[in-house]
Each structure stands twice: as C-alpha cells, then as structure tokens.
Amino acid sequence: MKNFLFKKINNFVKNGNNSFFKKIKNGRNNKVYCFFYKKKKYILKIYNKRNKNLLLRESKFLSKLKKYNINNVPKIIYKNNNLNYAIFNFIEGSNIKTIKKDEILQVVNFIKCIKKISIKNTIAAKDKCSSLKDHIDLIYNRLNISDYYIHRKLKKDFTNYFNIIKFQELPKATNMIFNNLNKKTIVKKLSLNELILSPSDFGFHNVLKKDNKLFFIDFEYAGNDDIKKLICDFLCQPDFKMSTELKDLFLRKINFNKNKKLKITNMLISLHKIKWCLILLNPFKKTMKKLTLSHYRKTLKKSQMYFNNSI
Predict the structure, then answer these.
(1) Which residues in the chain show pLDDT less than 70?
(2) What is the mean pLDDT of the chain?
(3) pTM of the complete model
(4) What are phi and psi of 257, to 5 degrees?
(5) Quick count: other Cβ atoms within 10 Å of Cβ 160?
(6) Measured between alpha carbons, how far is 61 from 63 in angstroms, rounded to an integer?
(7) Distance separating alpha carbons of residues 250 and 223, to the nearest angstrom
(8) CATH number, domain 101-310
(9) Which of 61, 112, 149, 138 has its CA nearest to residue 254?
(10) What fold characterizes domain 12-90?
(11) pLDDT tens across 13-61, in order?
C-alpha cells in the first residue's frame, strides 16, 4: 500500500467524512469500514479511543495465530497504534443462521489449534479468570445498581428483575460451587499449563462462513485466560441457541464431558448465564449514550427473555 493511501486513511480517522470508505458497523468498541484499493477489498477498523488495549489484544492474538499457521482468521495488513486503527484483508462470507454438527466440529478444531499455542509473552484477556473465585467475582463486580440509568417508567420492573438476579439466582449459583468444592480448590490460581490463548467473546456472532468453511473474527478481548470461561461464554452466548445434542457434542469433542471437568464447567455455566443477563443490560449503564424509552424496554425484555429461557 502506498503512502498516499495511508495519508487518506489517517485524515479520515481524524476528521471523518469520506465516501471512499463505506461503513459496515458502528459498535461500542469500534467502527468498521470497507474500501477498495487496486481492485481488492479491505477492512478498516477504528478502535474506541478510550481503550488502547483493543487493538493491542487483537493484533497480538492474530500475530500468534499467524506464527502457528492458523489461517481461518483475518490478516492485519497495517496498524497505526497512535491513531488506534488497523487494516485487514476482507473475508467474503455470510453470517451463521443455523448451527449444525459441522459448524460445531469446526469450532472444536479451532479451539484445539489455539490450545497448542504457547501463552508465553501474551497479555491477559479482558476479564481474565485465573481461579474459580475470579468467575464468581466477575459477576459480583457487575451488581452495583447505581451504575445503571433507570428510566422512571421502568424503575419497578428493572429493580425487581435486578434484585431477583442479585438476591436469588446468583446466591443459588455460588452456593452450588461452595457446597461442592472446597475453598482451596476455589481460590487456587491456575497454572500456566491450565491457561490458553483465548479469543474471548467467542461465539457464532463472530463467525463468517464461506464455502462451508468457518472464519473467526473480532479478537479485541483476546489474551491468556481460563479455557472454562471460553467454554461457558460459547455455550451461554445469547444470540445463538444450541440444542442439547450439539452442546453435548461440543463438550465431548473438547474432552470436557468427563466427571470433574464437566461438574465444574456446569456449575460455572450457571454463573455465566447470569453474567450474560447483566451484559444484556449494558445499554442501561450510565457510561453509555442515553436511549429512548422504547429502546430501554426492548433491552430489558431481551435480558428477561434470556433469563426465562436459560436459568
């Protein structure tokens, strides 16, 4: 790529407004555009200025995968740390609509490949869990109701729902752990051998499919982490519902269907379902842009529906 193109991109990142770049996505963590250069299509991802770690995590993760010849992920063509953006090759593909056995097997294969990667000189994933206690703390850290903006017309519904999570379901899930495992096991830090280089935020919402092959994208939260957290997030992610048969197949193929491993993972899944109920309430956070009452209603309803269907 020529210097004049980088100047054009730098100017666009600083000032915006250029028809050369077509917007694909405007999310909380990034803005994504596509553009053509010499008849090839590329992706421009501009990361949230307030979080320099997004680009750092994604670039380090992809760099590691490149060394291990894992190629069903995007390739970074160029990155600018100062302006917090990166250019990727464009992956032609469609979003997953229905999950079948073959998709599960490809996900398992991807996890098995990244399990072989050394985590030496890697950074921690966002919300990394180094012990079972960390999984519990992760949820409790989200339970300050004063962090949420609650519209007066939704105050009763929101507060009742929030209190059910905080005072009924979460104690039930944590008691299951404390009643079945000793304190030493719960607080014990994982060894390096028990951690993996995790893509984090892992699920079919971050997958594209082309010619029956899956491509995995968006690694802004990636880093070394507990594989049990990866498994829990994959199985609990609310945008895609998997049948019991497919969940069992997934656990069996990654060898997490054995006695103690399965027992602990199932207990953690109960916790992480609660976490996802709270994640779905993120638009209510005071740090987020205020929305319309209608949008807040839909957000609350989505979290409540996930709660009713999964817990």
Answers:
(1) 1-2, 257-259
(2) 93
(3) 0.92
(4) -110, 15
(5) 9
(6) 5
(7) 22
(8) 3.90.1200.10
(9) 112
(10) Phosphorylase Kinase; domain 1 (3.30.200)
(11) 888 878 899 999 888 889 999 999 988 999 999 999 888 799 999 999 9
